[in-house]
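Review session, final week

We close the course with one last complete record, chosen because it touches almost every idea we covered. It is Molybdopterin molybdenumtransferase, a protein from Nocardioides cavernaquae with 411 residues. Go through it on your own first, then we will talk.
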Amino acid sequence: MDACGAGRSATPVDDHVARILAAVEPLPAVAVPVLDALDLTLAEDVRAAVALPTFDNSAMDGYAVHWHDVADARSDAPIHLPVVGAIEAGAAALSELVPGTAIKIMTGAPVPPGATAVVPYEWTDRGAQEVLIHQAPREGANIRSRGEDVEVGDLLVEAGTVLGPRQIGLLAAVGQARVSARPRPRVVILSTGSELCEPGHPLGPGQIYESNSYMLAAAARAAGASAYRASSVSDDPDAFLERLTDQLVRADIVVTSGGVSQGDFDVVKAALSGLGTVWFGDVAMQPGKPQGFGTVGDDSTPVFTLPGNPVSAYLSFQLFVLPAIRTMQGKARASMPQRTARCTKGFTSAAGKRQFVRGSYDAALVAPVGGHGSHLLGDLAASNALIVVPEDVTEVAAGDSVQVMLLDVDF
Ligand code: AMP
Ligand code: MG
C-alpha cells in the first residue's frame, strides 16, 4: 500500500463517509407553509381530510337533468325541458331536481340531488326558460363523483417524500395550509488563505480570487440547503477560530476550505487540532487526500475541513458534505448513485487510492476531461461527471466499462 503512495494510514473513502454519517441525523421537523415545502422532505404521512372531489359536481357547463328524461333525445327528435334555475360554482345547499325539469349548471358547481346526468351546452339550444336537448348523454355523464379521486383518510403523501409541485398541489387540494417537513440545513462556508482576494476587487501581487466559497455555497444550495458565505480569513488561527465561533450559531453544518495540508500556514488544522473534537488525516482518494471532520461548539455542529485546491474542495463536498446535508434533510439516499458507462479514452490511475476523474458523459459514454491536477477548475467546469476508478485499478483502457457519478442529476 505504501509503495502505491496512499500514505501510511489513509482512511478508505467509504470509512470516512461512514464516520460522517454516524455523526449526523435528520433535522427536527417544522411546520412549513405548503408552498415553502417545495423540495423539502415530508416528515409525516399525510392523509386526506376531505374527499376529492369534495362533492358531486359538474364537469361541463350545461344542464343537470334526470337521465331517463333525456335518454331518447336525438337530433331529429329533440326533447324539451323547462329550465327551473341555474347553479354556479360555489353555490350552497341545493334542492332536489324535480323530474321533467332541467337546471343550468356551470363547471365545478354542485350537482343537485336527483340529477343523474349533465347535458353539455353543445348538445342543446342553450335555452334560458326552456331547453331543447338534441343528443342523449350516458347515465351519469359529466358528473364528477365525490371521492372518485381521493377518499377521506386516504394516504396521500408518505413521510420521506421530497415534495414537488404535484404533491404540493394535492396537499393544498385537501386543505393543508402547512405541512410537517425537514427544514433546509443551514450551511456556512468559511474560506481560509492569506492569498485570497474577493471577486470584484483588483488582485494584488501573489493574490488569487476567492472562488471556493462561491462554488461550495452554490453546491450546497443546489443540494437544497440554505448556504451562506462567511467572509474569508487569513492564515491566522485566532482569526479563524473567532470567525468560526461567530458562525456556529447560525449553522447546522460548517464547511471550511484550505489550511489542512502539511504546510507551515495550515490554519484550520492548527486552530481545530487543539479542540480535540475534529479528526484530521488522509483519505485514500485523489484528488482530495487531506480531510478533516468533527463537531465543534455547544451544539456539536458538524464541521468539514476541506482542502483548498478547488477540484479537491468540490469533490470533497460531493463525497462527504452532500451525504450529510441529505441525511439532515431526511432523504433516503445519502450518497451519489453510480452508473455504468463506457469510457471512450484510456488513462492511468494511482494504485491504493480511489481516483475521481473529471468526465464528460452523454448517453452511457464518458470521456475523461483534462488532466488530474486538483487546481484545474476550467476542466472541472467543463465536465458533468466523475469517473470512479477503484483503488486496485491502475489503468483504464478505451472501451472499458467504468462507474460514473453524474454531477447535475438529482437523485
Ligand atoms: P490550501 O489547502 O490552503 O493549501 O490551498 C491549496 C491551494 O488551493 C492553493 O493553491 C490555494 O491558493 C488554493 N485555494 C485555497 N483556498 C482557495 C479559495 N477559497 N479559492 C480558490 N483557491 C483556493
Ligand atoms: Mg491555504
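Two points worth writing down before the exam:
Confidence is low (pLDDT under 50) at residues 1-7.
The chain has four domains: 13-27+183-328, 32-52+151-182, 57-144, 339-406.
Good luck, everyone.
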